[in-house]
């Protein structure tokens, strides 16, 4: 079984608190799939305003957690870690469906599969569950780009 702890995850993602939304990779298979978790705690910054009387993880952050999981899978598949000039950009999502709220104390389990890679565009089927119940699903699209401005001139 292939797994990554939080320090290893930080080697693949530029995100940091409060935007790092992957706590552990449980398992992955190069070129195929990855399973990761986000431990949702009452201390999450977004719960201060979403919603004070009934805290619910924003759907856009559930999608972002799945996209970060997909980015890790892409780098693992390529067998390389990103340098400081490489970013994975989220291009879009199709068929997003939200099935249950995610609340403090939940563990969001993300499962992402690569469905296609063509012309620098990566496509994935992604889903996230809590206690085996589907919370969100959708088809993600991402690409990798350099932040080096000289590449565009």
From TrEMBL:
<dbReference type="GO" id="GO:0005737">
    <property type="term" value="C:cytoplasm"/>
</dbReference>
<keyword id="KW-0444">Lipid biosynthesis</keyword>
<comment type="function">
    <text>Involved in unsaturated fatty acids biosynthesis. Catalyzes the dehydration of short chain beta-hydroxyacyl-ACPs and long chain saturated and unsaturated beta-hydroxyacyl-ACPs.</text>
</comment>
<comment type="similarity">
    <text>Belongs to the thioester dehydratase family. FabZ subfamily.</text>
</comment>
<keyword id="KW-0456">Lyase</keyword>
<feature type="active site">
    <location>
        <position position="50"/>
    </location>
</feature>
<dbReference type="InterPro" id="IPR013114">
    <property type="entry name" value="FabA_FabZ"/>
</dbReference>
<keyword id="KW-0441">Lipid A biosynthesis</keyword>
<dbReference type="GO" id="GO:0009245">
    <property type="term" value="P:lipid A biosynthetic process"/>
</dbReference>
<dbReference type="InterPro" id="IPR029069">
    <property type="entry name" value="HotDog_dom_sf"/>
</dbReference>
<keyword id="KW-0443">Lipid metabolism</keyword>
<keyword id="KW-0963">Cytoplasm</keyword>
<dbReference type="GO" id="GO:0006633">
    <property type="term" value="P:fatty acid biosynthetic process"/>
</dbReference>
<dbReference type="Pfam" id="PF07977">
    <property type="entry name" value="FabA"/>
</dbReference>
<dbReference type="GO" id="GO:0019171">
    <property type="term" value="F:(3R)-hydroxyacyl-[acyl-carrier-protein] dehydratase activity"/>
</dbReference>
<dbReference type="GO" id="GO:0016020">
    <property type="term" value="C:membrane"/>
</dbReference>
<protein>
    <recommendedName>
        <fullName>3-hydroxyacyl-[acyl-carrier-protein] dehydratase FabZ</fullName>
        <ecNumber>4.2.1.59</ecNumber>
    </recommendedName>
</protein>
<dbReference type="InterPro" id="IPR010084">
    <property type="entry name" value="FabZ"/>
</dbReference>
């Amino acid at each position: 079984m292939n797994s990554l702890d939080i320090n290893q995850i930080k080697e693949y993602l530029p995100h940091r608190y409060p935007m790092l939304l992957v706590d552990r990779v449980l398992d992955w298979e190069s070129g195929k799939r990855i399973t990761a978790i986000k431990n949702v705690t009452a201390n999450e910054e977004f719960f201060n305003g979403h919603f004070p009387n009934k805290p619910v993880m924003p759907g856009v952050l559930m999608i972002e957690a799945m996209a970060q999981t997909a980015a890790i899978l892409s780098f693992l598949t390529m067998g390389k870690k990103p340098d400081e000039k490489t970013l994975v950009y989220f291009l879009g999502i199709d068929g997003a469906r939200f099935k249950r709220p995610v609340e403090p104390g939940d563990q969001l389990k993300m499962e992402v599969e690569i469905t296609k890679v063509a012309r620098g565009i990566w496509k994935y089927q992604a889903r996230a569950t809590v206690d085996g119940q589907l919370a969100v699903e959708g088809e993600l699209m991402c690409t990798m780009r350099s932040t080096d401005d000289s590449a565009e001139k």
